[in-house]
Amino acid sequence: MARTFVTRLIPVIFGVLCAATCQAAWVIVDAGHTPAHPGATGASGRVEHLYNLDLSAAVASDLAAAGERVTRTGADGRDISLTDRPNAAPKADFFISIHHDSMQQAWIDAGRNKELKGFAIFVSELNPHYEQSLACAKAIGERLLAAGETPSLYHATPIKGENRPLIDRRLGIHRFDDLVVLKTARMPAVLVEAGVIVNPEEERRLAEPATISKLADAVSKGVVDCHP
Ligand SMILES: [Zn+2]
């Protein structure tokens, strides 16, 4: 019990010290996909890019309020290539791409979309700052768990097209080396799937302003936690 208390206190102490002494970081906040290629389609028919825009706007706003410098990508309605996203600000300290999750069509057709919910976090070992990327993934996962969110372990399912190595089961962190935005980023980089929009109940929850605020608060605090 005492040890758990101390473990929980460390980030709090770090946060207080950091507020006084830490440098602001420059963070690229990427809204996954574009209006022309909007990603997954939610159970209601609303497309993923719109969910990504809402949540990434809230994350960007929370990070700016915390004193960080923010560059947004994928949020101006124009097409942007995957490699141009992390290169929009090559000198930035961190890149985070915000997505909302789907699953393979065969699972949706089999009615399994109602079974899955929760977040997933991806890192690439091909990123030049893998260890720092993983540290940030862990910080974000801890904040999401503390906010009452749960990891979806769907992407670790041993089926073709998934089967992503699970680095941290408790925090929902997977390795996905070939994710282009992560492997071409020059800075530490993480991709977050905030929730599963093909699940109708989960999609409704993810659209609520209170959920968006809660998720943005957790993600932005995780980003602030993980840089010196
Ligand atoms: Zn996506």
List keywords for this structure.
228 residues, alpha/beta, Aminopeptidase, 7-stranded mixed beta sheet, 7 helices, 7 strands, 39% helix, globular, binds zinc ion
Task: Write a structural description.
α2 crosses α7 (209-225). A hairpin with a 4-residue loop joins β5 and β6 (173-175). A seven-stranded mixed beta sheet has the order 2-1-3-7-4-6-5. With 228 residues, it is an alpha/beta fold. The protein has one domain (24-225): 3-Layer(aba) Sandwich (Aminopeptidase), CATH 3.40.630.40. It has helices at residues 2-21, 48-65, 105-109, 130-146, 180-183, 200-207, 209-225; strands at 26-31, 69-73, 94-101, 120-123, 166-168, 173-175, 189-196. The chain has seven helices and seven strands; from the N terminus they run αβαββαβαββαβαα.
Give a short overview.
With 228 residues, the chain is an alpha/beta fold. The protein has a single domain (24-225), classed as 3-Layer(aba) Sandwich (Aminopeptidase). Helix content is 39%, strand content 16%.
CATH superfamily: Zn-dependent exopeptidases
Strand order of the largest sheet: 2-1-3-7-4-6-5
Secondary-structure-based class equals alpha/beta
Question: Quick one: biggest sheet?
Answer: 7 strands, mixed
CATH level 3 topology:
Aminopeptidase
- The figure for the number of domains is 1
Gyration radius, in Å: 17 Å
The helix-strand sequence is: HEHEEHEHEEHEHH
Kindly state the mean pLDDT as a whole number?
A: 91
What is the CATH domain class? Answer: Alpha Beta
Q: What is the beta-strand fraction?
A: 15-25%
Question: Which CATH architecture would you pick?
Answer: 3-Layer(aba) Sandwich
Separate helix tally: 7
Distance between the termini: 28 Å
- Please provide the count of β strands: 7
Uncertain regions: pLDDT < 50 for 5+ in a row?
Answer: 10-17
Give the overall shape, derived from the CA principal axes. globular
Attached small molecules:
zinc ion
